[in-house]
Amino acid sequence: MKQTAAQRALIAALAWGVALLLFFPILWMVLTSFKSEVAAIATPPQLLFEPTLESYAEVQSRAEYLRFALNSVVVSLGGTLLALAFAVPAAYSMAFHPTERTRGTLLWMLSTKMLPPVGVLVPIYLLFRTVGALDTRTGLVVIYALMNLPILVWMLFTFFKEVPKEILEAGRMDGARTGGEFWHLLLPLTLPGIASTGLLSLILCWNEAFWSLNLTSSEAAPLTAFIASFSSPQGLFFAKLSAASTMAVAPILVFGWLSQRQLVRGLTFGAVK
Amino acid sequence: MSKRRRGGAFFAFCLAFAAAALLPLGAARAQTTITIATVNNGDMVVMQRLAPQFERQNPNIRLRWVVLEENVLRQRVTTDIATRAGQFDVLTIGNYEVPIWAKQGWLSAFDNLPAGYDAEDLLPAVRTGISHENKLYALPFYAESAMTYYRTDLLQRAGITMPEKPTYAQIREIAEKITDKNSQTYGLCLRGKPGWGENMGFVTPLVTAFGGQWFDNQWRTKIDTPEWRRAITWYSDGLRQFGPPGATSNGFNETLALFAGGRCGLWIDATVAAGLLYDPKQSQVADRVGFAPMPTGDFAGGPTWLWSWNLAIPATSKQQEAARAFVAWATSKEYIQLVARENGWVAVPPGTRRSTYENAEYQKAAPFASFVLRAINEANPTASTREPRPYGGAQFVGIPEYQGIGTQVGQTIATTLTGQNVEQALRGAQSATERAMRQAGYPK
Questions:
Q1: Helix locations, B28-184, DSSP H
Q2: Any B CB within 8 A of A185 CB
Q3: Parent domain of A93
């Protein structure tokens, strides 16, 4: 069915509307970060105002942004790679060598995501205390990897399922072992999927706030802790909080923007046969 | 490279990178490092800025700061202390927590304070609030009570003068006269956001002033009573008729923003707001703020409002000596002098020491000083409500269960601002509180 010009315009307008709606909170945060504290809380909200960098200067003078940012980069990358190192083999074996318990295992893995994290906070805190992992990047990397593992396995499993078994069989006939089969056949075929899985995991790690706030204090504290430190129960803080948040989301926003093609391609991979 | 080895390279790379991230970064430290967990209130930010002076005086002590949002801090510190993990050496906690945690054996007592510290100089009401069995378990950093703020220009225009000791009935009359919703001027602003530290911080003293209380001496819940009904009716009618729209989302900060932005005629809240409202950098009405004591109802002399932010040392800290040295420094007279020198007298942490209020320069810089002092001295956190009560605390109930109960009742009270019938709401709050108290094993 051919679309009329009016229909196309309507769809475009709708798409723009939804996009703006989703983007508006971020835009407002960025705008607020350039306001003074008094302007940030003015009613009615001001769209036109005299921009100032005083919140950024204040945020810079109070906390070392780079130290927090470095921790975020290290724990997000570390957690993602550690999770991938376990999730890829796990998904491979479940996709290509399933047993009667595979389905049950997959569902069980997913069920671990249904428990609110606070339910296991005390046991994990005690474990971390015993092994000395509190306030270390090591601890966060392990927690992030474990936290994202079920999602990663599930995503990779669905990507691998899309690959016809016959291709791998043909490879095996030609003498490829498991490693070669993966490297020469599976990896090229599912690279967009693996990449988007990794990107998603990276974003989830970057934004994770519960464990990072509870398991770190100063040495390993990532950007989420940096943001949390600018909220105050007494006194105005919206402009400073917005400046801190803008600085915290900027790297991942740029990263997400640069990799959006990969991300979309991966997420829709196999959607249309 | 063989196919097999190349196939494994991917995993090796992932593992190697993850392993590199896993390497601990701890470096050897010759000094004693103490970790201070604190909230991000203005006075604490000043303390953090001035702390290098302490490090210079004590070269063998290094300070490490963990600044967190109040609720996150409370959760974080509770987990740490309850599991005895010992991540923190100094904590910023309120006078609600101090006696409860001291009873649990979680905090170290401050018995042998240095002679120059002059603990007798601390305001008695504040000291009592952070003592357990006559021992101090924290030292106060700053303290607050509550008072009434009003816009002098609005009252003048309406031809009204604020009574010296206003009553709640008078406050309502004034609010009615100065409300002008067309120009977005709301006669009465109060906390409406549910929470034990938000709307209930105001509601509890309001109920006390109307002659009510939470529990009687046998721990029977007393919410579904005429006193509560009259108090909550005053609160919900007043806010609905003369308050800003969407009052249920206004906590301390939001209301402060409304008043500072010129939208409120009257506001009854913590004395700490005075310094912020008088600061032209933070307030558009700095030259038009008047103040009066907290209003009274038909029962006078009961507990009103007393909150202090204190520095305490968890019993699990391994650096007790260094931590004590820091806490004594940050709550000393010398520290108050230091803030005055660096930032001016109006910026000194209020409400803790007599000597601050006796200082002529402070009285000059902070015209509200005598009000704050009187409000703190008359806060009576241990006084009786109209009927005797088995618990302490002025604007809160000093039992561990109160965080949960207070927040739940706060949610019910908030529904009366959006149209729920007061009697029904109080019946609901009564039965929910009875249930929670039964489950917690009261009467104990």
A1: 42-57, 70-82, 97-103, 124-129, 152-157, 168-178
A2: no
A3: 64-229
Please give the Cα distance from B112 to B325 (Å, whole number).
12
pLDDT in tens, B60-103: 999 999 988 777 888 888 888 888 888 999 999 999 999 999 99
| Three-class HEC string of chain A | CCCCHHHHHHHHHHHHHHHHHHHHHHHHHHHHHCCCHHHHCCCCCCCCCCCCCHHHHHHHHHCCHHHHHHHHHHHHHHHHHHHHHHHHHHHHHHHHCCCCCHHHHHHHHHHHHHCCHHHHHHHHHHHHHHHCCCCCHHHHHHHHHHHHHHHHHHHHHHHHHCCCHHHHHHHHHCCCCHHHHHHHHHHHHHHHHHHHHHHHHHHHHHHCCHHHHHHCCCCCCCHHHHHHCCCCCCCCCHHHHHHHHHHHHHHHHHHHHHCHHHHHHHHCCCCCC
pLDDT at B242: 96
- Comparing C-alpha atoms, which of B227, B226, B231, B225 is closest to residue B200? B231
The helix (run of H) or strand (run of E) holding residue B6 is: helix B3-22
| pLDDT above 90 as % of chain B | 73
Residue A250 maps to a domain: no
Q: What is the CATH number of the domain that holds A158?
A: 1.10.3720.10
Q: At what angle do helices B3-22 and A137-161 cross, to 10 degrees?
A: 150
- Asked if residue B329 and residue B202 are part of one domain, the reply reads no
Number of domains in chain B: 2
**Residue owning tokens 């306001």:** A35
Determine contact: B51 vs chain A, CB below 8 A.
no
Tokens of B107: 């905090």
Q: pTM of this prediction?
A: 0.81
pLDDT of B18 reads 53
Q: What percent of chain A has pLDDT over 70?
A: 95
Nearest to B160 by CA among B185, B179, B182: B179
Residues 126-155 of A with CB under 8 A from B: 126, 129, 134-138, 141-142, 145
Q: What are phi and psi of B132, to 5 degrees?
A: -140, 125
- Check CB contact of A103 with chain B, cutoff 8 Å: no
B24 in any annotated domain: no
What pLDDT does A4 receive?
Answer: 85
Q: Which of B369, B392, B420 represents a domain boundary (last residue)? A: B369
- Return the percentage of chain A with pLDDT > 90, whole number: 55
ipTM of the complex model: 0.75
Strand-by-strand arrangement of the B289-293 sheet: B186-189, B264-270, B146-151, B289-293
Q: Does A124 touch chain B (CB under 8 A)?
A: no
Is there a single domain that holds both residue B163 and residue B272?
yes
Q: Does A81 contact B14 at a Cβ distance shorter than 8 Å?
A: yes
Task: For residues B298 and B148, give the distance between their C-alpha atoms in angstroms, rounded to a whole number.
Answer: 18
What pLDDT sits at residue B4?
Answer: 47
Of the given ranges (A225-229, A267-271, B27-31), which has the lowest mean pLDDT? Answer: B27-31
- Partners of residue B35 in chain A, C-beta under 8 Å: 217-218
Asked if B280 and B410 sit in the same domain, the reply is yes
Shortest distance, CA B220 to any CA of chain A (angstroms): 32
Q: What is the mean pLDDT of chain B?
A: 90
Q: Is the pLDDT of residue B192 over 90?
A: yes
* B24 pLDDT higher than 60: no
| Residue keyed to tokens 């994770």 | A208
Are B147 and B271 in contact, with CB atoms under 8 Å apart?
yes
Task: Please return the burial class of B318, using the count of CB atoms within 10 Å of its CB with bins 0-12, 13-18 and 19+.
Answer: exposed
